[in-house]
TrEMBL record:
Domain Peptidase S49 N-terminal proteobacteria: 2-157
Organism: Kosakonia oryzae
Gene3D superfamilies tied to this protein: 2-enoyl-CoA Hydratase, Chain A, domain 1, 6.20.330.10
UniProt name for this protein: Protease SohB
InterPro entries linked to this entry: ClpP/crotonase-like_dom_sf, Peptidase_S49, Peptidase_S49_N_proteobac, S49_SppA_C
Record GO biological process: proteolysis
Chief localisation class: membrane
Family that this chain belongs to: Belongs to the peptidase S49 family.
Localization annotation: Cell membrane
Length: 348
């Protein structure tokens, strides 16, 4: 009995130590996650990348003797630049190139426009440092999605417009429906020749399983307070009155969409383009939906000579489960994109 008692006491001590270690580990993990919860801004000096690319290409085209001379001159140049940077730092002018800045953001939108959480952080960061002579370029790719999500994304871009910071949106692939709602906020829209533009319309579809359930002798009861709390349902029996109200809501949303686009681009013949159709870049230019044909690469290369081009990206740290579910969501979005490209229309 004494042996068993001592053994039990030993196990209790071990269990206490294990629990204590586990509690400490959980606290450390929670504290770490809290610190990382907000995410972080990643700044990329694109001007320097373009400059390095240009220099590497120039050097590679020289013969061996010329390359040696070039590298020697380059070494001398870098030494001089470091000396000048040190002098500027002492004078309190560290990082000041004297050039206006172009802040480059990216928005690759999903159906729920969840990327707006990062966009709002990026725009807030830019607004804290932007000067009147600076500007923003947003590389946009989105087929649209839920109304409230893209409405918020457009409102975030409106913050730049309200502060009189020039905004250019570059579309290489697609800015349709809710994506175009974002694009039209810009002072200038640049799109590639075959980029998909427009689709100023609203669509919704709801499957109904009521007949199937009736065949299986399954009753569905739906109780609401308010005549139109539910217009169409998945399981209950839909009424013509509910369908009519649902169509009215769609038309009201479409009218708000048209009004917003017309407000942003008053010269646009809104009735001729708000049919839900989409056009390619060259066609969109003729209709006034965009301002210039070109790719985002051409646009940034044209700016980097006279401006300091800086990439700004907000990266949210994700837990392992969020990474997994995020990958699954992204796969679904890619599938929806393929369906859309085969003729389906986005939600908005």
């Amino acid at each position: 009995m004494e042996l068993l008692s001592e053994y039990g006491l030993f196990l209790a001590k071990i269990a206490t130590v294990v629990v204590a270690i586990a509690v400490i580990a959980v606290l450390i993990v929670n504290l770490t996650q809290r610190k990382r919860q907000r995410g972080e801004l990643k700044i990329t000096r694109l001007s320097e990348q373009y400059k390095e690319m240009q220099e590497e290409m120039s050097a590679s085209l020289l013969d061996d003797h010329q390359q040696k001379q070039w590298y020697k001159a380059q070494k001398k140049k870098l030494k001089q630049e470091a000396k000048e940077a040190k002098a500027k730092a002492k004078a309190g002018k560290n990082g000041d190139t004297g050039k206006s800045r172009v802040y480059v953001l990216d928005f690759k939108g999903s159906m729920d426009a969840g990327e707006v959480s990062g966009l709002r952080e990026e725009i807030t960061a830019v607004l804290t440092v932007a000067k009147p002579q600076d500007q923003v370029v947003l590389r946009l790719e989105s087929p649209g999605g839920v109304v409230h999500g893209y409405g918020l994304a457009a409102s975030q871009l409106q913050r730049l417009r309200d502060r009189h910071i020039p905004l250019t949106i570059a579309v290489d692939k697609v800015a349709a429906s809710g994506g175009y709602m974002m694009a039209c906020v810009a002072d200038k829209i640049v799109a590639a020749p075959f980029a998909i533009i427009g689709s100023i319309g609203v669509v919704a579809q709801v499957p109904n399983f009521n007949r199937f359930l009736k065949g299986k002798e399954i009753d569905i009861e739906l109780h609401t307070a308010g005549q139109f709390k539910r217009t169409l349902t998945l399981l209950g029996e839909n009424t013509e009155e509910g369908r009519q109200k649902f169509r009215e809501s769609l038309n009201e949303t479409h009218d708000l969409f048209k009004e917003f686009v017309h407000q942003m681009r008053p010269a646009l013949d809104i009735e001729s383009v708000a049919t839900g159709e989409h056009w390619y870049g060259s066609q969109a230019l003729e209709k006034g939906l965009i301002d210039q044909i070109g790719t985002s690469d051409e646009l940034l290369l044209s700016l980097y000579e006279n401006h300091e081009v800086i990439g700004v990206r907000y990266q949210q740290r994700k837990k392992m489960m969020e990474r997994f579910t995020g990958s699954a969501t992204e796969s679904i979005d890619h599938l929806l994109m393929r369906w859309w490209q085969r003729g389906q229309k986005p939600l908005m």
